[in-house]
Design brief:
alpha+beta; Immunoglobulin-like; 3 domains; about 40% helix; flat
Amino acid sequence: MTRALSSSWRCVASCLTALFVIALASSTAFAGKPTVAILGLEVVDPNGNIDQVSTQVAKDLTDGLRNRAKAGIGPYQLAAGADKELIDEKLIHNCDNEAIPCMVQIGKNIGTDYLIYGRLEKRADGYQVTINLLNVNKRKFEKAKTPLVIAKRDAASLAAAARKAYNDLVGVSDSGTLVVSANIDRGTVLLDEEPKGTLTSGTATIKGLKENRYRLVIEADGYQRSPEVTVTIRSGETTKQAVTLAPAGAGPGDLDLRHEITGTTSSSSRSSVWKPVFYASLAAGVGLAGASYYWWDSSKSHGSKVGANMKIDDGASLCSGSGIDSAAVAGLGITEAGMDSLEKACSANAWHKRSFIAAGIVGVIVLGSGYMAYFRGSSEAPPSGAETVGRREPKKRFSVTPVVSTEGGGATFQIDW
């Protein structure tokens, strides 16, 4: 069944535009990270013998560094079109070495905020790698990675070396954190079958984990061992994982319970999305209501000064739109000062109507978002019985549809149940 309440008011486009700007301002803005370009490591050999193996090692290390930035690890993001080689850029810019002025110019031409570059030198005991981080805008080094000696050139060793070098340069910890939440108060958290932490009030925080994939399970008295879950830990990041345990000795019906718990949790998660909308629209509504009162009071104040012997409350009876109704004031003998007050009263009265309409629209949004945030989840009972598992019940919905035309604007408010 659908009931719709519709209303349309005359309102200039600036009113709706202002309302839209308020909604945008209340949303969370995402600020992009500074960009970094990672130049291909230059291979250096004192004897001038640069072989294919050394070139491949330099390429693998460069790819490893770029993959860290591409994955969003640390404070920087990989700059677009940054797949340049250090040796090529030095030739293009006539650089004899890696002097700061020349490297800054390379960074500016690429269009990046930071520049990572370095060299790989073959030695008797392996390779020595030196990597630098340059702040292009400030024209100075942020950090230089002390020479890193690589004895092995297999894929795992090179990936580990690239990870460590990048983390050291950008200031990211070599380890990550895992936060586990469960539907029980106490239990033991195992990673790859090794105890790593204990649940307290349903939560366990495990720090200092090396970047890797782990098999996560939870064991607790009175409960079945939880299903195994694979979690990925990244350096300098916090990974969250929810786990559900079934009571010991439970049958297939308990599997249904686990599904129901998951559905209830997701419903709560959906309602939390509406909370910022509710509070933002509430703040906007209060502001618009205050503005409406201010313009109403201003209109009344100016209207009372139009003429001492005229019963004019807020000047509205002599106004047309946002200006003076010439036909209505004709022959009233209003003085020049009175006309000036009347003009101000008409303008204030027009802004009072606009802000009042906008406050009404926002009020509808407040009611709708408040319902979605605080009442919708509680009114939806979780499914019960095996026959309802995996099915979604119809959701109560509401919608607010703006109505804009050359004659004015408004909104349609609709509730479905």
